[in-house]
Automatic annotation (TrEMBL):
It is a multi-pass membrane protein. Residues 53-302 form the G-protein coupled receptors family 1 profile domain. InterPro entries: GPCR1_Superfamily_Member, GPCR_Rhodpsn, GPCR_Rhodpsn_7TM, Olfact_rcpt. Belongs to the G-protein coupled receptor 1 family. GO terms for biological process: detection of chemical stimulus involved in sensory perception of smell. The keyword Coiled coil does not apply. It is found in: Cell membrane. The chain crosses the membrane at residues 35-59, 71-94, 114-132, 152-176, 208-230, 251-270, 282-304. Its main location: membrane. One of its GO terms (molecular function) is olfactory receptor activity. Keywords: Cell membrane, Disulfide bond, G-protein coupled receptor, Glycoprotein, Membrane, Olfaction, Receptor, Sensory transduction, Transducer, Transmembrane, Transmembrane helix. This is Olfactory receptor.
Amino acid sequence: SFYKKYSCNYIHMDNISFNSSSMLSLEKLNIPPNVVYPAFFLGLLNYCIIVLCNSIILLTIARDKNLYQPMYILFFNMPVNDLIGATAFLPQLMKEILLDSRSISYPACVTQAFFVHLYAVGSVLILTAMAYDRYVAICLPLMYNSIMTNSYLMKMIILLWSVDFILITVLLSLVVRLPRCRSLISNIYCDNPSLVALVCSDTSINNIYGLFLTAVVQALALGSVLYTYMQILYTCLRNKHSDARSKAVQTCTTHLVSFVILEITSFYKILSYRFEKTPSYISKVVGVLVLTFPPTLNPIIYGLKIKEIRTRIPLIFRRKVAHI
């Protein structure tokens, strides 16, 4: 009896070990054959726009010393983060569309999930840091240079990325430690909820930590942005100088648009995991929008709305042409 029990446990563990190294299947895209190539080129075009626009913003800030200011240095992190999110998703999706392959290895799936969540949490933290910067600049202008020093700014950026990295590492470490007995990813890309759904043991700790992470990040972001913008609005209404007021409103509107777009798409995606009655096609569309919409719009919004960036983008290209 003992031998049989031991043998059964050994076989069970062996199957789990086998599953851990096997390929996973992503949810089908259901793209008609005549739409495959248009869908591929649409995805390729979108990725090229994201890479080009975000790279231009990065190059403009990096090469123009007039933009070496806290506001733009903080904003520099946004295109980097957007490129992480888009690169984690779009190349894999285009490959799957073109080759009609919905399989992915478990390590590749975990890697994709890591960068997808790194992008999602990073977006919220970066926008929160930018809101704080605008609050100090508009509400405490005389103290701005003494507060937003280079050392303080670097500490803020290092802390931002460190917290993001640690939170997501813990999130996925809790998943990969558990045995799996399923191989179908119920999503068009890999993320933490999809990986948790593969597990055949107790996932209470994963669910608690996932809810904790979502609640803390969202509460921090919404609370900080609401507080800072209420203070900014109050300061702008008190300011008698119309030029300073309009400049403050213009800068803050740009930031607020990016924040609202991110929150709307992210909030719906979070809710779709909690309510099973959500139509799958809507969940798929929103999932794609979370990873493609902000990275596409952010450089365009900031590049067009912020005068300092908009006027310096052509200068970068003129310098390159002059050097040639």
